[in-house]
Amino acid sequence: MAWLLRDEKVLATLEVAETFRARSRGLLGRDTIEGAILLRPARQVHSFGMRFPIDVAFCTSALVVRRMVTLRPGRITRPSVRCRCVIEAEAGAFARWELRVGDQLEIQA
Question: For the chain, which domains are there?
């Protein structure tokens, strides 16, 4: 398990999904998530088959937040061409973390 940080402050525990299988599964079949999940590489996500709304942050390869949306179940995002990864968390988490576009995130093992 890893940690998601901003300015050396821990925001959440972080699952990292880098294989095709792990990215395809993502949050499907879960009722909730503690912390967040990083999908890498990813430029677009969907919430078909999901049971709860999610916050989605599209990030560059250096983990700079470029765009954020809240996605209800049964939806799909538009692709973010300049982004290389996506962070997903339960809806409302980004507000609690005070996450903003332009934030520089980091991962610590």
Answer: 2-108 (2.60.120.1140)
